[in-house]
Amino acid sequence: MARHGWNSGARRWRFTALLGVGVAALALVLTLIHTLPGRAGSEAGTTRDGGRVHGTPSVPPAPKPEVGWGFTHTQYSADEGSSAATKRVEQRLGEQSPPQIQHIMGWGADNPEPVKGRYDFEAMDRRIDFVRATGGTPVVTLCCAPDWMKGGKPGADRTDWSQAALETAPDRAHYKDYAALAATVARRYPDVRHFIVWNEFKGFWNDSAARWDYEGYTELYNLVYKALKKVDKDIEVGGPYLVMDSLDPRQKEDASPAVKGSWGAMDQRVLDAFDYWNKHKAGADFVVVDGSSYTRDDELLPDEFAATAKFTAVSRWVRSRTGDLPLWWAEYYVEPADADDARDGWSESHRVAVHAAALIAMVRGGATSGFYWNPETEKGGGCAGCLWTPTDRSSGGEPLPMLGLLSRFGAEFPPGTRYESVAVAADDRANVRVLASERVVLVVNTLGRGISAQVDGKRFAMGAYEVKWVRR
């Protein structure tokens, strides 16, 4: 599924600038040799030392399965651009050091193993270095798979970056190769103690049975789990990263009779896939899901704020299945995308308010960690929903409202927070969302107009879609 669209963020292989006609000719000859029929493909730019420790890893504290509230790096991020702008983002993130996800292939990372046993981690190294510089907890999503593991051609110059190709799962015959790649990544970045296995069941749909290939995913998951634990038994591993799709409440086919609400009904095929993985998994340190508040047909029912109740319902259902395992939302969406996968129809205050309501809904369901899919752009002026302005110019890298929400939420409600109930005036209950700890109350105005609200014994004015933090 392409809920968040596809941006590979990876370079198509190109030779660096060649100096002199003789060097250019030599490079051409070498390229021709490597691409002759029967060859394994170009190994240019690769190394056999994939498992060699990169850089200067931080010394992480003892790993815990709960990491808190952060974001995912996508095609463009602050590891590249103007030095002044990237430094500005680095310093701003360093103030709170949020957890950050990076995939191993795509979304800013190159093909990590273009030829079996030959690695290219240049882009991945840069992303991990950036997370280290901010002091954030690095999380790696083990997706996607090199071409030679899924029927494609090996070679540093042969990676197929089309969405269809990238979202193909590895062939079953290469599950062990993928587990070996996962172990290589773990050895290269010993300070990464949290790994998510795969992304959204990409490539694991069974067309003939019209259901998810949960047997195939679980087999891959178990091999990766064991490979990572062999590298370091204290590595934390989670899955299954299913998209928790919901259907129109009037739809009967594939609709769950148990997990439903005014927001719709869960797709029973997703629940079946989750239950299979949960029953047959080799182990898990945390559980990962993904989803939107709107239906699979992009309907917000009954409205954008009420629809966030889905996050509470799904979280409670997952927790009822997995017991004490911490629950992560690896991605969550509250604003349907247009035909170009853009989400820019709301004002920024509206967007921040609905996201705040979604975070509150996750917490109420028992979630302890969540990651915002950062839709960062490479350049330009506008960037709806982005965490900071584009870093292509020295004036870039300025924090935007969504970063303010996520940073404050993560700081005020870290893992282990004890939440408390607070009084809300009867005539305000329908208009606000509230989350409180012993130190602070988060209040969200769900209306596009100003109100006077009474929460926790205090009365105060709130602007349209305002998100207010009230000290206790």
Instruction: Briefly note the structural class of the backbone.
Output: alpha/beta
Q: Which stretches are low in confidence, meaning pLDDT under 50 for 5 or more residues running?
A: 1-38
Mean pLDDT: 92
Q: What is the CA-based Rg, rounded?
A: 23 Å
What's the helix-strand series?
Answer: HEHEHEHHEEEHEEEEHEHEHEHEEEEE
In percent, how helical is the residue content?
Answer: 25-40%
Number of helices: 10
Shape: globular
The separation of the N and C termini measures 43 Å
Number of strands: 18
Beta-strand proportion? 15-25%
Mind describing the biggest β-sheet? 8 strands, parallel, barrel
Biggest sheet: strands side by side, in what order?
1-2-3-4-7-11-12-13
Keywords:
alpha/beta; 10 helices; single chain; three-stranded antiparallel sheet; disordered N terminus; 18% strand; eight-stranded parallel barrel
Could you please describe the fold and organization of this structure?
This protein has 10 helices and 18 strands. With 472 residues, it is α/β, with parallel strands linked by helices. It has an 8-stranded parallel barrel with strand order 1-2-3-4-7-11-12-13, surrounded by 6 helices. A 3-stranded antiparallel beta sheet has the order 8-10-9. The protein has a 3-stranded antiparallel beta sheet with strand order 14-15-18, with helices on one face. The protein has helices at residues 21-34, 83-94, 122-134, 163-166, 175-188, 214-231, 268-280, 309-322, 348-365, 401-412; strands at residues 69-72, 100-103, 138-142, 194-197, 205-206, 211-212, 236-243, 246-247, 255-261, 264-267, 286-292, 327-333, 369-373, 432-436, 440-445, 451-455, 458-462, 467-471.
